[in-house]
UniProtKB/TrEMBL annotation:
Biological process, per Gene Ontology: methylation
Keyword Signal part of the UniProt annotation: yes
Native source organism of the sequence: Lichenifustis flavocetrariae
Keyword annotations from UniProtKB, A to Z: Methyltransferase, Signal, Transferase
Protein name as catalogued: Methyltransferase
Amino acid sequence: MTTTITGRRSRAAALVLAFTLAGIGAGPARAQGVDAPRLQALVDGPQRQPANRARDPYRHPIEDLTFLGITPSDTVVEILPGGVGYWTEILAPYLKDGGRYIAANPPKTDTSEEAVKGNAALAAKIASDPADYAKVDTADFVHDGNIVPSGTADAVLTFRNVHNWMADGSAPAVFAAFFRALKPGGILGVEEHRGRSDQPQDPLAKSGYVRQDAVIALAEQAGFRLAATSEANANPKDTKDYPAGVWTLPPTYRLKDVDRATYTAIGESDRMLLRFTKPKS
């Protein structure tokens, strides 16, 4: 008997099947555990802010979380969700009943303007919607210690942060912290602005772009194994050679109105999405 599922739910369910059959997704076990209809309902849900929803054409939340194999029973640590909480709005309600969502923001002892603002905004978001966020846990994102107790996370996710850690020299320590946090067999998901492969990697990643092989090398040096790559967030229009680096493009528009229409037409950056695993032995 063939069952037909219509509309957005059909698309979400089809993504899980497509990734599994193609062999480029989360692997059969994890892909089958993804609740794609639930994810789609949350992506479409009223708990999301309009500004976050507007970025979906560039960020592909269903495709990304399906590729990463995030199941409703997982303990998931998101690194630096900030106060905007793009992924918080989806992952927190997705995990609240059977799993655990942990937002790892800067420690409260970090008095930088960015950290204070981000922590305050995240706290306000959590308080604003107890039905969706009351079970959100927080952790201190530290570069050289334990973010959560060792071996307790099913997944650690980081979105467009690697260039910052390269800039301050903490990248090796950060990837080592991710490795400690994960259970054996756990998933590390990394999204990053993808640098040009025909140019040397700037060790400080001042443009915001990082070569894909450089990210893979950082993860492998920490003990991870590359499991799969996704082109869900690829953007071939991104030439990666802008006056203000990746921040020239939307949503930042660092040059403000200078050539804004040109950069709007390009869209957000070309991004890699990588899935690593912590070996079981």
